[in-house]
């Protein structure tokens, strides 16, 4: 069995209170339940907006610079994720497809080391 990250991507201006209507929440809850029953879900987590992030960058002299905001300035950010343990990439992609539908957002599937 291999572990995979299934990450949901949101635009920078994503507001869950406005975007996540009741039907979407039900779909995500149903997907979480399905993952639990299938025994594939290791961990799940939603992330606060990228604007609430704090970035730390090590400098050559050993100092660490701490700045408010995300590490990268992008138009999208990871808004939430699952860590799944499944047989192979095909199985991970099957769950990723379900996540994309439930979350109504792009999803990235990536194996963990």
TrEMBL record:
Residues 7-109 form the YCII-related domain. Pfam families: YCII. Belongs to the YciI family. This is YCII-related domain-containing protein. The lineage of its organism: Bacteria, Pseudomonadati, Pseudomonadota, Alphaproteobacteria, Hyphomicrobiales. SUPFAM superfamilies: Dimeric alpha+beta barrel. Signal peptide: none annotated. InterPro entries: Dimeric_a/b-barrel, YCII. It comes from Pseudaminobacter soli (ex Li et al. 2025).
